[in-house]
Amino acid sequence: MLRVASYNIRKSIGTDWRRRPMQTLAVLNEIDADVVALQEVDRRFGARTSSLPRQAIRDETRYVPVALDARPGGLGWHGNVVLVRDGIEVLGADCLTLPALEPRGAAFVELAVGKARLRVVAMHLGLLGLWRRRQAAAILSHLMSLKPGVPTVMMGDLNEWNPQGRCFKLFGKAHQVVVPGRSFPSRMPLGALDRIILSPEVRLVDTGVHVSNRSRGASDHLPVYADVAFPGSESVRRHVRPLVSQP
């Protein structure tokens, strides 16, 4: 099995409105995922530098950021960042600008996990339903242009409150839209905005929302995770720890 996770870190600003990147990194260590899609990593204005220092990621976690077409001082593509644990090989990365009124994008990353291959799509959809549908269609269209048959996990903040939202229906035509649970706002979750979407080659083993004292305060979103299996993943030796509340 492999654990994947998605987390909107709100530029490392906690619910106390203080920027605490080390708190964000501590939450990532709690989740103990193999691949993580982050949203809102880079600051929105000015030089749009990363809220997570690259060296701190290396020093405080077991993750390596995937190299994307980021601005100088930034880490992600329109705020989207993919982190992989040591030992997972990055075969390639492709960035897509999404149709939107405000800047939006998605990152497509090809990984070698042991003998297995895995495609990860990190995304953050817009606030308006019409644009979310267009963005979902653009992501699916780009997937169609890539090598078929590669197990694929799409994940991110879809910004969709309606369980029957049309962007879910678009993704759900050929993929499984996983609902880990309510993840926003972190102090009193009401909406399942953060989703994980699996291609038919990927089997869902378990999923959930990571709730801890740290995660409730580190961002306005809670992280979501899924344990998955896919062709070749049996070659990956991994012990998945049960998630428990952390101090």
Structural commentary:
With 247 residues, this protein is an alpha+beta fold. The protein has one domain (2-235): Endonuclease/exonuclease/phosphatase (Deoxyribonuclease I, Chain A, 4-Layer Sandwich). Helix content is 19%, strand content 30%. It has five helices and twelve strands. The strands form two sheets. Strands 3-4-2-1-12-11 form a six-stranded mixed β-sheet, with helices on one face. A hairpin with a 2-residue loop joins strand 6 (105-113) and strand 7. The chain is globular and about 45 Å long. Mean pLDDT is 91; it is low at 239-247.
Name its key features.
six-stranded mixed beta sheet, 12 strands, Endonuclease/exonuclease/phosphatase family protein, 5 helices, 247 residues, alpha+beta, single chain, hydrolase, endonuclease, globular, Deoxyribonuclease I, Chain A
